[in-house]
Design a protein that fits this description.
The protein has 726 residues and is mainly beta. It has 5 helices and 45 strands. Strand 39 and strand 40 form a beta hairpin. Pfam families: CADH_Y-type_LIR, Cadherin.
């Protein structure tokens, strides 16, 4: 079945008719499938199919349905189901629509007419199989004086003078509509076209002249200043080249273009000197060799500007007249003390005097000196074997008007080459331990020896080797290549007579004067097998050497130990002398003696004799060594009340204790005697005695002694049985 999409067709719209070969009055037509009984319905008795909605081909172009014929009485199928398709015919009812609202394109400036810019696309939803329904045509309705568009949507230029520097972007409007002759509506889109740059303009200086000031001490390659040009092209097309036009200073300055800013950087190629040239003036040119002359519009192909460089004066350091300085001297020459001199001058107009100072030396040490006036001197002869060359750095400083030295200084290298003198005899290069079989045949090579010399190799030939004596079983054969062979002379060594032979070898150097040395080879005689292989050799005693530096260190250590021991002995002797000093004169030392005792009152008149105290002589006693203040002296038997009494006894005991302590130096001594007088009624007040005493003395009598004993009376009178610590 077919049906044309209609916009204004009344509904329902007849689509077609279902036919059947069955003739039955009870036949019933039914349709099934997508949109059956919704969009499409069938008349049950006649089989006519109707559309109850307007169809749009652009939404759905065809519908597939199934037709059934049944008996309405029992719903039995009268014919097999039959499928049919309803196709919707297209009508030109859609307007072409652009795929995007804004298009972008670009084209190089100054492009020829017809150069393609970009392409636009519009889509018509109508059936393209129907002629004229989906055909789209394009038209530029704004900007058609610069661009055009063909039927395929390609936009191209219509002029060859599109200049980016005049106008860089264009905005045009393109219309899309159906094929010619159609009266349908149309749609539009905006196209933004950008002109890309080409190198079609030359650079132009921004100023007709440039003026720069620069100090004369600017470094070579430093920046003096920058000249600027204007180039209307894009940065990637700015390739300015700078050059000198007038002025003979191409060897003094150079102009280099900065690739990022297109500026011309002026740099000095050699040092500037205010005293020689105070101002430079020259013309420079700016051009671009990559400009496409086919599109060059107008103006000159180059731009010229004048550059003035003013050099300012600065205080420059001294300038050496010769660099570097080199002197030669013979080694060990005691007569040479002055090698030459260095010289520097003040390049400024002040022309100050110069003072020279040595800064660095290699090797480090006082080998080469320089005077204030620049004279190179040797304090002592130089040794080439220590160093073949001596280098120093000499600084030159200006002497200011006030006598001070300027902070600015310049440096020069001074090289002293030491020429060689033949002052070292050659020495044997000791090889591995030489050995020989006791049954070695005559002519057997024992070892090849060589020598070394600290001096330079003599130009007159090699070392000469010889034996100090011919009275041996060895011979020496020269190889004439600075080596010699030690061979067996007679053969058959006797190990019973000598297991080790000492062979003196004389080596001379052919120098001027000729120097020689005698070196001893120690050759062991070994037992060998039939093949000549060593089977047994005596072990040599290994020499153990001690360097001079090690010996000096050992002697210093021994000397230090001896000095320390002497100091300790002197200190001990001094202590002993001090401990033996007597005190025979009372005025030398005053002795402070404290007696921690209490007098016995009026009755205690014979406790001690004061004259005994004046006769006390003691050596130094530590206070810590004194007895405890609570220690008691045992009472002597009997009632000693005559003469010195018991106090004399106590003092004698203390003297004996002090006399027996001889370890300390003498000093003022404090002695504490915890002892009560014998005639005291109160006896000892020490808690050491009272704590263990069984005494039943009544201490109430203390109340009668007055206020001074009130506290003691309260303590002993109230609780006589408790210990009391005094």
């Amino acid at each position: 079945m077919h049906i044309k999409e209609e916009i204004d067709t009344p509904l329902p719209h007849h689509v077609g008719k279902i036919t059947s070969s069955v003739r039955n009055n009870y036949a019933k037509y039914i349709i099934e499938g997508e949109y059956a009984n919704t969009i499409f319905k069938v008349e049950e008795t006649s089989g006519d199919v109707y559309a109850f909605e307007r169809l749009d081909r652009e939404k759905k172009a065809e519908y597939e349905l199934t037709a059934l014929i049944i008996d309405r009485r029992n719903n039995q199928s009268l014919e097999p189901p039959s499928k049919f398709i309803i196709k919707v015919y297209d009508i030109n009812d859609n307007v072409p629509v652009f795929v995007q609202k804004v298009f972008n394109g670009s084209v190089p400036e100054m492009s020829p007419v017809g150069t393609s810019v970009t392409k636009v696309t519009a889509v018509d939803a109508d059936d393209p199989t129907v002629t004229g329904h989906a055909t789209v045509t394009y038209q530029v309705i704004k900007g058609d004086e610069y661009f055009t568009v063909d039927d395929s949507g390609v936009i191209s230029t219509t002029r060859a003078d599109l200049d980016r520097e005049h106008q860089s972007t264009y905005e045009i409007i393109v219309k899309a509509k159906d094929a010619p002759g159609s009266s349908g509506d149309s749609s539009t889109a905006t196209v933004i076209i950008t002109l890309t740059d080409i190198n079609d303009n030359f650079p132009v200086f921004k100023h007709p002249s440039f003026h720069f000031k620069v100090p004369e001490n600017i470094s070579v390659g430093g920046e003096v200043g920058r000249v600027k040009v204007e180039d209307v092209d894009e940065p990637q097309h700015r390739n300015t080249k700078y050059s000198f036009v007038r002025g003979d200073y191409r060897d003094t300055f150079e102009i280099v273009a900065n690739p990022f800013t297109n500026e011309g950087i002026i740099r000095p190629k050699k040092p500037l000197d205010f005293e020689k040239v105070a101002e430079y003036k020259f013309d420079i040119e700016a051009t671009d060799p990559t400009v496409d002359l086919r599109y060059f519009k107008s103006g000159g192909s180059r731009s010229i500007s004048t550059v003035t460089i003013e050099v300012t004066d600065v205080d420059e350091p001294p300038v050496f007249t010769k660099l570097p300085y080199e002197f030669k001297v013979r080694e060990n020459d005691p007569e040479i003390r002055t090698l030459g001199s260095v010289w520097a001058h003040d390049p400024d107009a002040a022309k100050r005097k110069i003072r020279f100072i040595r800064r660095r030396a290699s090797p480090n040490g006082d080998y080469v000196r320089v005077s204030d006036t620049g004279i190179i001197q040797l304090p002592k002869p130089l040794d080439r074997e220590f160093s073949s060359s001596y280098n120093i750095t000499v600084a030159a400083q200006e002497i200011l008007e006030d006598g001070r030295l300027s902070d600015r200084e310049s440096h020069a290298q001074v090289h002293v080459i030491v020429t060689d003198e033949n002052d070292n005899a050659p020495e044997l290069v000791y090889p591995e331990e030489p050995r020989v079989c006791e049954n070695a045949a005559p002519g057997k090579v024992i070892i090849r020896i060589s020598a070394t010399d600290k001096d330079e190799t003599s130009p007159r030939g090699f070392f000469k080797y010889s034996l100090a004596t011919e009275d041996s079983n060895f011979s020496l054969v020269e190889n004439y290549d600075n080596t010699a062979n030690i061979t067996v002379k007679y053969g058959q060594f006797n190990r019973e007579l000598a297991k080790i032979h000492y062979l003196p070898v004389i080596i001379s150097d052919n120098g001027d004067p000729e120097l020689s040395s005698t070196n001893t080879l120690v050759i062991s005689v070994c037992k060998c097998n039939e093949k000549g292989n060593f089977t047994f050799c005596e072990e040599r005693a290994k020499q153990v050497g001690v360097s001079i530096q090690a010996l000096v260190a050992i002697f210093i250590c021994i000397f230090t130990i001896i000095i320390i021991a002497l100091l300790i002995l002197l200190r001990k002797r001094h202590k002993k002398d001090l401990s033996g000093l007597g005190r025979n004169v009372a005025e030398i030392h005053e002795q402070l003696v404290t007696y921690d005792e209490e007098g016995g009152g009026e009755m205690d008149t014979t406790s001690y004799d004061v004259s005994v105290l004046n006769s006390v002589r003691k050596n130094g006693i530590k206070p810590e060594a004194a007895p405890s203040p609570y220690a008691q002296v045992q009472k002597p038997p009997g009632n000693m009340t005559s003469g010195a009494g018991e106090m004399e006894m106590m003092i004698e005991v203390k003297k004996d204790e002090a006399d027996n302590d001889r370890d300390l130096l003498p000093y003022d001594t404090l002695h504490i005697y915890g002892y009560e007088g014998a005639e005291s009624i109160a006896e000892s007040l020490s808690s050491l005695a009272s704590g263990s005493s069984d005494s039943d003395i009544d201490y109430d009598f203390l109340n009668d002694w007055g206020p001074r004993f009130k506290m003691l009376a309260e303590l002993y009178g109230s609780e006589p049985n408790e210990d009391f610590v005094y």
